[in-house]
Amino acid sequence: ANAAAVRRFAERGGTVVVLAGGGELLEPGVLPYPVSFAAKPITVLDPRTPVHIPFPRPSALDWPNRITSSDFDDWIGTRARELPASVDARYRRVVEMNDDGDQPTDFAILSARVGKGVFIYTGLSFDEQLSGAHPGAARLLVNLLSAASRAP
Question: What is the pLDDT of residue 24?
């Protein structure tokens, strides 16, 4: 019901971070650009799954904290859940990962400019990591929340 107000917030320069979800994300206006989910949700179950940072590095990984692959060490529970099967080309992919034997996915963090602001969708298990006081997850979440005010 508040999707239009949230979008206006982003368009005026705010950052909106949407955590893992499913069907509700397909409702018109919740995300700025289309995503689709597979019938069986795409997950990365192993919290030790390596996270690959693409080149060139996305700015979301550099400010205010420099995020490296070691920030994903010692995660607990699930690495990521509710990952889209396909996304609109206007989303920028931030990291790539996959469980052994599965196809790699670069849909764990998606970032898109909307007006002067940013919409970010992430399927990373921030709830599990932050309840366990994981410092790398906290640094990454701060970076995502700071996306629209990123230093030049």
Answer: 73
Peptide bond into 56 cis (omega under 30): yes
pTM, full prediction = 0.90
**Rounded to the nearest 5 degrees, what angle is found at the Cα of 97, between the Cα atoms of 50 and 42?**
130
Confidence of residue 40 (pLDDT cuts 50, 70, 90): confident
What is the distance between the alpha carbons of residues 4 and 80, in angstroms, rounded to a whole number?
27
64 neighbors 142 (Cβ within 8 angstroms): yes
DSSP secondary structure, 33-102, as one string: S-EE--SSPEEE--TT---BPPSSPPGGGTSSS---GGGGTT--S-SEEEE-SEE-TTSEE--BB--TTS
CB 16 within 8 A of CB 10: yes
